[in-house]
Every structure is written in C-alpha cells, then in structure tokens.
Amino acid sequence: MGEELDGMLDMYLYENGQLLEQLEMTTLEKKDADSFDDDDINEFFRVMHTIKGSSGIMMFDNIMKLAHKLEDVFFYIRESHPDNVPHLELVEKILAVSDFLREEFDNIKEGGEPTKDSSALIKDIDKFLTKIKNEILEEDKELPKEEPDEGPQQFYIGAAGGDKFKYYYVIAYYRNDTQMSNIHAYALANSLKEVTDEMYYSPEDIITNEASADVILEQGFKILLKSNLEEDDIKAALGGFDVESTEVSKCSKEEFEAGFDVPNEIVGSDTIDLGEAEAPAEDKKEEKPEKKDEVKPGDYVIENKSAGKKATFAKNKKSKAAAASYISVNVNKIDQLMDLIGEVVIAESVVLQNPDLNVPGLNLTNFNKAAAQLTKFISEMQDVIMSMRMMTLTNTFQKMNRIVFDTSRKVGKDIEFKMIGENTEVDKNIIEHISDPLMHMIRNSIDHGIEDKEERKAAGKSEKGLITLEAKNEGGKVLISVSDDGGGMNPEKLFAKAKKNGIVPRDKTIADYTNKEIYQFITSPGFSTKEKVTELSGRGVGMDVVMQNIQSVGGMLEIDSEYGKGSTMTLKIPLTLAIISGILMEVGNQKFVIETGSVKEFINVKGSSIIREPDGEEYLNVRGQYYMVVRLNEKYHIRDGRKEIDDGIMILTEYESQKICIFVDRLLGGQEIVVKPIPEYIKKVDGLSGCTQLGDGSIALILDIGTLS
Length: 709
Known about the structure:
Layout: H1 2-29, H2 38-57, H3 61-80, H4 87-109, H5 119-138, E1 166-173, H6 181-192, E2 198-202, H7 212-219, E3 221-227, H8 231-237, E4 245-250, H9 253-258, E5 270-273, E6 300-302, E7 313-315, H10 331-352, H11 365-389, E8 390-392, H12 394-411, E9 415-420, E10 425-427, H13 428-449, H14 453-458, E11 465-474, E12 477-484, H15 491-500, H16 515-519, H17 542-552, E13 556-562, E14 566-574, E15 579-587, E16 590-595, E17 599-603, E18 610-612, E19 618-622, E20 625-631, H18 632-635, E21 649-655, E22 658-664, E23 666-674, E24 688-693, E25 699-703
Parallel strand pairs: 9-11, 16-25, 20-22
Antiparallel strand pairs: 1-3, 1-4, 2-3, 4-5, 6-7, 8-10, 11-12, 12-14, 13-14, 15-16, 15-23, 17-21, 18-19, 19-20, 21-22, 24-25
C-alpha cells in the first residue's frame, strides 16, 4: 500500500506541475492583452477544477480550498461575462496562486507536508470575486448560481459476509476532460474495498502506468465485485469520485472467476448517468428487440464511447488499448544511463585499440567487420541517449517572462518581452546551470538597461522598453542572448569605476583596452554602477554569479553595447557536457584532445613562415593573415616534444572569432571523447578544461581554446 501511495503522490505532483506550467504560460502570454478570451477562461477553470479534485483525493485541504476559490472566479467570469474585469489584477491573482501551489508542491517533493496557510490569499481572491460580482450587479446582470463544493461522497457499509454472495460487473465512465482519471479510479477502487469481499479491476496498473489514464477515458474503468450487497447498494457506493456514469450488471460466479479475459454480454445492465439530467419522457422511444445471432465467447467487446452514453457493442472486433506516446522516467536513471554509455565508449576504444591486435600476419577481416558494426550501434545508442537528455528551453524562457513581468512592475517600467527560439534543445544539466544567469541578465537589463519613461521620451524612443531573449544553435554550441533597447553602457564611466575599485592597474589607461574588454568589467565580483543598493541591484554579485555558473559548464559570456542604443549579452554554451567529438593529437608522450568544432584547418608549414617578435611571441602567416602560435611543448614543459616547425603540424583553431595556431607533433585521428573533470586536488591550469581515458588506458588532456593563448 505504501508503494501505491508513493506512486499516487508522484503522479499527483507530476500532473499538477504540468497543469501549473500550462496555467502560467497562458497567463504570461496574455498578460499584455485587454482580457482573457473564453477559451482561456475555460482552460483556467479546468486546471483549477482538476487541481482541486486531485488535492481533495490526496487530502491536501489548503491546496484544495485555494484552487476552489480561484475556480469560483473563473466560474463567475465564464457564466456572467463581465466587461470590466481588471485584467492585470486578475493576472496577479493567478500568478500568486501559482506561486503558492508551486511552493507547496516543492515542499511535498522534499518529503514535507503542505502546511502553508492559504487563508490570506483566499481572502484576497474573495475580495476580488466580490468586486467582480458588484460590477455585474451594477450592469443589471443576473449572477450565476453558486457552484456547489461537493467533496467525494463517503459511504460506509458493513463488510461483506454470509454464505450467499452476489457477483457484479461494473464499468465507471469519466468525462473526456478528466485529468488523472487513473487516480480517480484508484480512489474509487479503494473505497469499494470496504463493501466487497473480493474485487478485481482493469486496468490493473492504474498507479504505476500513466497510460492507464487514457485507457480509462476511452474504455471506462472495469470492476468485478463479489459482495453480499444488493445492486442498489453497489450503485450508491459508486457515487462521487468524479464518475459521470456507471453500468452495473449481475454476472455468474463462473464469469466472475473468468475475469476480464473473456468479455461477456452485459444483459439487463442499468446505466446511472451522474452528469446529465434524465431525458424527457416524450423523447424516450421503445425500441423493438432485434434478432441476434448465437453469442459465442469473445464475440463482443466494448467500443470506445463518449462520456455519459451507454456502451455499444461491435461483433468480431479486437479492443485496442491506447498506446503510450510518452513515459516519465526519473532523471537519475537517465544520468546513470549516460554514465554507462560513456563507459561503453571507453570500453569500445579499449577493445579496438588493444595491442594484442598488432600481431604481424594476423587476419582481422572478420574482426574488423564486427568492430565496424559494433561502432555503428554504439554510436546510434549514444545519439538516442543524448537525445533523451535534451530538453527545449521553453520552460526556462517562460520563467524569464514571469521575471520580466514581476520586476518591471516593481521598478515601474513598461516593458515588452519578446522570445525567439524557445524550442531550441539543450542538455538538461546545462539548462539547470543557465536559469540563474539568465535571471540576473534579465534583471540587469530591466534595472540598468531600460531607461525611465521620461528619459526614453527625451531620447525619441518608445515609452515601452523592449527586451529580447533569443536562443539558436551554432557550431555545436547554443547561443542565448538577452538584448535591450535601453541606454547602453558608457565605456568611460565603466573604466573609471573599475579603476576606482582596483580592477584596473594604475598605470593602465582607457586606450589600453577595447570596448569589449571594458564591458567585461561588470562581471568582476563587487562591481556595480549603482551607487545605492536596492532589492534588485547595487551589491555587485549578479553578473559574478552569471560568470561562475557559465564557466562551470564550459561556456562563456560575450557583452556588446552601443551607448544610447542598448546592450546585448550572449551566453555561448555547449550542447552537452557528457560526450564530445574530438581530434586526438600527441606532443612528446602526452596526448591532447581538441573539440572538433573548434578546429578550422590543419596546416603543414615551414619554419620560414613563422615571424618572431622581440618578446618571444610567434605568428604564422596563412594566406596573408597572421595568427598567434602556441607551442604545447613549451607551454606545458614537455621535454621530448618536437621543436622544429618542419617536423610537426599546425592546427588552426577558432574561439569567439579569435583564431590561434597550435603546434603539435602529430595527429592521431578523430574519436568520441567521454569528458571527465580534472580532479579538484589538481591546481587549475590555463588551457585545460578536462580529461578523458583512451583505449590503451592512458589519459588525454582536453584543451580549452578560450584560455590557451
């Protein structure tokens, strides 16, 4: 029973979490409109009704009462169609309820109880509802009847006993828009245990299988009962639990013991319609009985039916269970699977690069064929597992939409928020690391970037500011930019502040830095252009948090601005952290790896092509362009590395439009690389971002082109 309750709780949190995201997404999309349309109100009503019902089943009273109160608001708006509903005030009420519920759900996830007091929020929403009602009365419109708040009906009937049992075949039908019908079905089955001696139901896996909800909606929830109760008592026990209609019929002991494998014709079944009024007597017509063929086992199955109507029968048809399109899996299992495929990739390298295969005269034709097939399958498996970890940025972008709404109202600025490319997919671990940086960047644009209305008007701009959040894929990386049409950054002011804070050496002048380098000062710890500390800014920690989080996932931040026109901050992050495609090379006895996307060209050069500066720096002339040369043997003190340019090879790499040439001894080929972090006890070394294990057991260092020069 404990496992079943845990399953119910997990499903409750998952389903209602999805509903909250849907609610908040629609609310934020329409926040700038004049009002919500009828479809929106109906959607909000259904969401609140579902959360209320499922919370009642789970006995979370504070959540149920709050959901019911907001449901009342949508009920009155839907039924009365008032013209003067304060739209922004309604948006704030919806988001306040969403925040409360989300906090309660998070508390439940952590093993706690939903103990927050919702009475103040309920009182606030009740005042809003009273305000709407008064407006309706002023317009001489009739108020709709109050929707009764009926909880699940509870029945207690003595446990079944005696020698003479009766057997029943029951089908419970739910409305087509019922959410989590499998949980409602579980609650129904659990209540029937009190009044039956023996019971079976189908589908059996209503708690552990989400797809069972679709089956229940399409085919109904089927129950076989053994009880000494009369048929009327069984019907009474089936009331409530959001059941719209039921079919109850007696069956024989043999049919009961046969279970659901051999469906039987329901003879004399009595349909109880809990959702529709009884049809007028004049509409009922007596139908003539039709001559039927002899019934054989398996001839009849229940077809899919609309809620509230009697089941129909079709001869010689096979019932089809709803196919599950999606399945929820614990993310820890996906992480374990990702780790395992990484180990499989390493094991593949160990097998294919085994020195025992280098025996002269050994025929490896069949082995090579099998190895090629293995490599193909492992590569496809890796792609599938990687795709399982990929998630769209939609939810993350919607959170930023909420931040813009809340923050702009706090600072009193009118801001339009535009989202582009929210369907771009990124590794889940990456998404978890970029939410905080994006939040700080958005707040920075609102508080520092967008000017007040008077300033914008004086500059000839629209009074409404614009912030654009955009994501796109580019060369194995994801670029996420936050742009605003605000006042931009003043390089002179930033430089003066940086010099005052000791970020810039005293002997340096503004001429020693480019504008992009000056803009990077805002990411320094403790740096802020605000003189007064506020709730949103002034402490100099926001952009520092951005840099730390982005660097932890191998990303970087690029800042560009035009004074008086606006600013753009761009995050460049890898698609995934787990496995990359790399180029393997060797310097002396040490192996290195460069990510394939960073490599632009391999060049065989002669010493005459190298230009040496007095300070020792070297540059390579490639078709009239000069690029800095980095010798890995000198940078990392590898004694047995080649020194003559003619004996090695140059690799032209690019990072953020900056190109450098790396001199190595030899290339070893391309390979899938499982990225491993460098142990914490090893001091951070510039130019290295991680390491990997090769097939022969040796370790290769992964180069970080951004910090190599």
